[in-house]
Every structure is written in C-alpha cells, then in structure tokens.
C-alpha cells in the first residue's frame, strides 16, 4: 500500500517554469545589454537617463535570479516562509518588467517582445507560487523546513 502522507507537495510545472525562466532570463539580460549598447551609441538620450536605466537593469537581473533561486528552494523544501519570500520578490520583478516594456526612455519592439515573454514567466510563476502557498498551508506539518 502506498503511504500518501509522505507524498511530495512540490509543483512540477512551477519547477519547470523556473528552470526555463532561468535560461530565458540569462538570454534576456544579455540581449537587453546589447540593446542598451545600441541605444547608447545611436540614440540621443536626455541628460542622465541611460545610466540609471542600465543600473536598474543590472539590479533587476540580480533580483530576477535571486527570485528564481528562492522559488526553486521554496518549491523543493516546501517551506511556507520561502514561498512568501518568492511571492514578495515577484512583485518588484513584475513591476520592473512593466517598466522596461512601457516606461523606459526609448522602447524598441525587441524590448516589448522580450519583456512580454519575461512578464509571462513571472506572472505564471507568481500564480503557481500562490497555489503552492495554499497547498503548503493546507498540508499537515511534516518536519522543519530550512527556511
């Protein structure tokens, strides 16, 4: 007889999304850097705007990879506090994606497409993260999580 009490609560589609989001994010930040190099070389930016936008992109990259790492750890360890951190980190990441879709100084079509794909990953992962929180919250306690 199978013991369902020890059945893992992790969500495989979320883990798959996190893996592909990690791959896509690496590609995205490389492409975004090349786009910023092009914009800085060929477009006339208003005074002191390209440096803060690119610094924000670098901060966004750190935030995004940390968010993916925390989401992966939360899913594997089944810790509620890690899930809450993942959800909390998803909010500024989603807002940053929206900024780079519509609010940066010069928006290319490539910016819109690459950021829309990234935003799709982030929103889908946030939805799965919320479902993961509900699933972990309803589960009976099974031991101490690392977070």
TrEMBL record:
GO terms for cellular component: ciliary transition zone; membrane. InterPro entries: Uncharacterised_TM-17 (IPR019184). One of its GO terms (biological process) is non-motile cilium assembly. Its main location: membrane. Keywords: Membrane, Transmembrane, Transmembrane helix. Pfam families: Transmemb_17 (PF09799). The chain crosses the membrane at residues 17-38, 50-70, 82-103, 115-134. It is found in: Membrane. Coiled coil: none annotated. It is a multi-pass membrane protein. It comes from the Eukaryota. This is Transmembrane protein. It comes from Blepharisma stoltei.
């Amino acid at each position: 007889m199978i013991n369902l009490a020890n059945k893992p609560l992790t969500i495989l589609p979320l883990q798959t999304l996190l893996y592909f989001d990690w791959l896509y994010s690496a590609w995205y930040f490389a492409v975004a850097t090349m786009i910023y190099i092009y914009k800085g070389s060929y477009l006339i930016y208003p005074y002191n705007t390209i440096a803060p936008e690119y610094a924000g992109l670098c901060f966004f990259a750190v935030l995004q990879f940390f968010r993916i790492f925390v989401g992966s750890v939360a899913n594997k360890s089944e810790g509620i506090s890690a899930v809450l951190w993942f959800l909390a980190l998803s909010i500024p990441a989603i807002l940053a994606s929206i900024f780079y879709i519509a609010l940066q100084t010069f928006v290319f079509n490539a910016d819109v497409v690459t950021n829309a794909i990234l935003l799709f990953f982030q929103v889908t992962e946030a939805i799965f993260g919320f479902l993961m929180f509900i699933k972990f919250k309803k589960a009976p306690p099974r031991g101490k999580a690392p977070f």
